């Protein structure tokens, strides 16, 4: 199989200023000149050279080939024209890329939507190791009306599993469990495939901060959205009492991000002419921000993506709007650092005319400022867009995670960076995810704006394996690669269902509640690995009170031993 190379030059179209930084709408032959009906926008490094490449899926009703562009590392791209991943003339929608066989490269799954009552198969493309792909017809071939797909290691076996949303005639969503031998087993016996609703987007997110990935699905046609709490491998509980699953809506997309820098993931839901919704997460309880600028627009919104576009230490928001004859602009919202947003009406992103379906942030020129790609589809014939971020002044850092005991592409990893911005200690949180918004995927390299921070105080990485590592000494304004197991302090989080430790975060006192009596030994260490407290827990009492009022505020790690074996461990935040 050969790859035809068409070298692309670039012109720059001037743009507007946005909060002391700006975007330039770029002109690339092929990428921004080819008329298409695009759906997904994916910033992905398919050839492992450290530079984000670009993939667009296309969903023309009569069928259309998808598009892949290889980053030449010099500001130009190469159009791929002879490869399985761009050969099929299909009605594609969502696309999700991840290292499904842990061989060090990204494989891709592209879903399609049926026509005239006839369901169509989806397509799995395995990476040859050099950024070229071959079609594997045996992986998840079910004929469906699919919308989106998302990879995650749902059962903690180091292998990425696949969830697919369906709509129209195919109302049952699909889940495929990775068997580790290049095969996938469809599971129909799990709670997460029981519902029959017209589903759109799917997100894996640890909404309750208990160390595993829960499942959130948006549903259209006046249905409630769906949340499944992960209670252990292959054990999901549907949650019906939270605000985020109460409304009857026509929801299309969703994005999760820590917009107020408090350590948990907040939720944005895009809707069809019903107003978009922002929910603030406070320890697993959600509050809808009905007065937010985000909620005041009544538009038809699909794609959404959070990113720190001005590198000031908080996450801003882009929303792609579509299918309207009167509202032809996308929406850009700037975060003030506390989760409050102001809508931008003048930037190039906010004034572009057309319909946008999917959107993704990445840094295609590796300058530390987030660029954005837009999958457009007005009347099934519109060019796509690339906007280069030309901001200057603020600092940044990028972290690419590589799993060892976790899946190789580190999907599901949570990265936290602490720094001092404008005199305040700020901890920012990002997650590595295989899909976001609607049908799209941001770069797998996590990006953090640092404002005027002069250094990184600490980096904490929580891997899907349960390993929590801390790192220091990483330079700002650089991209770094961190491999699982290389941290200066490591602790594997173990959640034994016999024990409940609460509250967490804690002020002075927390409790250890056990379902059975016994003799245990508790140790608490600080981030330097020093033991700061040891307690012997002995007797019939199943509820134990632990006083840590003498310890300064910060992050600590606990281990609970039974006859020298660690039976429970994790992190404690003292406020």
Q: Uncertain runs with pLDDT below 50, 5 residues or more? A: 1-20
Mean pLDDT: 91
Q: Span between N and C termini?
A: 58 Å
By helix and strand content, what is the structural category? mainly beta
What's the helix count? 1
Topology, number of strands = 46
Helix content: under 10%
Main sheet record: 6 strands, antiparallel
Q: Give the C-alpha Rg.
A: 23 Å
Shape: globular
Task: Bin the strand percentage.
Answer: over 45%
Protein name: Por secretion system C-terminal sorting domain-containing protein
Domain ASPIC/UnbV: 410-480
Pfam families: FG-GAP_3, Por_Secre_tail, UnbV_ASPIC
Keywords: Signal
Structural commentary:
The N terminus is likely disordered. The longest helix has 4 residues. Strands 2, 3, 4, 29, 30 and 31 form a six-stranded antiparallel beta sheet that branches. Strands 1-8-7-6-5 form a five-stranded antiparallel beta sheet, with no helix packed on it. The chain has a five-stranded antiparallel beta sheet with strand order 34-33-36-37-39, with no helix packed on it. 1% of the residues lie in helices and 45% in strands. It contains one helix and 46 strands. The protein is mostly beta strands. Strand 19 and strand 20 form a beta hairpin. The N and C termini lie far apart (58 Å).
Gist?
The chain is an all-beta fold and 575 residues long. The chain contains 1 helix and 46 strands.
């Amino acid at each position: 199989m050969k790859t035809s190379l068409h070298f692309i030059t670039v012109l720059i179209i001037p743009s507007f200023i946005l909060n002391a930084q700006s975007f330039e709408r770029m002109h690339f032959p092929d990428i921004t000149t080819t008329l298409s009906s695009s759906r997904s926008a994916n910033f992905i490094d398919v050839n492992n050279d450290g530079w984000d490449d670009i993939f667009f899926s296309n969903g023309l009703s009569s069928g259309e080939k998808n598009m892949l562009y290889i980053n030449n590392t010099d500001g130009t791209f190469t159009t791929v024209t002879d490869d399985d991943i761009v050969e099929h003339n299909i009605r594609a929608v969502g696309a999700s890329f991840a290292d499904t066989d842990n061989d060090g490269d990204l494989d891709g799954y592209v879903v399609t939507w049926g026509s005239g009552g006839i369901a169509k198969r989806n397509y799995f493309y395995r990476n040859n190791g050099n950024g070229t792909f071959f079609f594997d017809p045996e992986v998840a071939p079910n004929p469906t009306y699919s919308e989106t797909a998302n990879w995650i290691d749902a059962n903690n076996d180091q292998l990425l599993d696949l969830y697919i949303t369906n709509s129209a005639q195919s109302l049952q969503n699909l889940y495929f469990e990775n068997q580790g031998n290049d095969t996938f087993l469809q599971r129909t016996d799990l709670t997460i495939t029981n519902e029959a609703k017209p589903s759109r987007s799917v997100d894996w997110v640890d909404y309750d901060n208990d160390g595993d990935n829960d499942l959130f699905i948006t549903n259209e046609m006046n249905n409630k959205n769906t949340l499944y709490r992960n209670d252990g491998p292959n054990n999901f509980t549907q949650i019906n009492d939270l605000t985020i699953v109460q409304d009857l809506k026509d929801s299309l997309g969703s994005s999760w991000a820590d917009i107020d820098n408090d350590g948990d993931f907040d939720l944005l839901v895009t809707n069809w002419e019903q107003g978009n919704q922002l929910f603030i997460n406070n320890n697993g309880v959600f509050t809808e921000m009905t007065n937010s600028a985000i909620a005041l627009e009544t538009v038809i919104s699909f794609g959404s993506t959070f990113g720190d576009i001005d590198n000031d230490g908080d996450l801003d928001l882009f929303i792609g709007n579509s299918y309207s004859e009167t509202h032809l602009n996308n929406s850009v919202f700037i975060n003030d650092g506390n989760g409050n947003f102001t809508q931008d009406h003048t930037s190039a992103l906010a004034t572009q005319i057309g319909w946008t379906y999917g959107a993704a942030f990445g840094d295609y020129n590796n300058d530390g400022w987030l660029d954005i790609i837009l999958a457009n589809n007005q009347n099934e014939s519109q060019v796509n867009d690339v906007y280069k971020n030309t901001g200057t002044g603020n600092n940044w850092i990028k972290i690419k995670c590589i799993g060892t005991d976790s899946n190789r592409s580190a999907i599901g990893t949570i990265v936290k960076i602490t720094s001092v911005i404008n005199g305040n200690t700020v901890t920012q949180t990002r997650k590595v995810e295989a899909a976001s918004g609607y049908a799209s995927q941001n770069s797998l390299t996590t990006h953090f704006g640092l404002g005027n921070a002069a250094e990184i105080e600490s980096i904490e990485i929580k891997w899907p394996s349960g390993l929590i590592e801390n790192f220091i000494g990483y330079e700002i304004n650089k991209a770094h690669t961190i491999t699982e197991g290389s941290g200066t302090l490591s602790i594997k989080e173990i959640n034994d269902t016999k024990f409940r430790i609460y509250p967490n975060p804690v002020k002075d006192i927390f409790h250890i509640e056990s379902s059975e009596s016994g003799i245990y030994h508790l140790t608490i260490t600080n981030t330097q690995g020093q033991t700061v407290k040891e307690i012997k827990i002995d007797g019939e009492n199943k509820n134990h009170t632990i006083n840590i009022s003498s310890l300064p505020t910060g992050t600590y790690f606990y281990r609970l031993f039974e006859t020298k074996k660690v039976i429970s461990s994790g992190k404690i935040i003292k406020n």
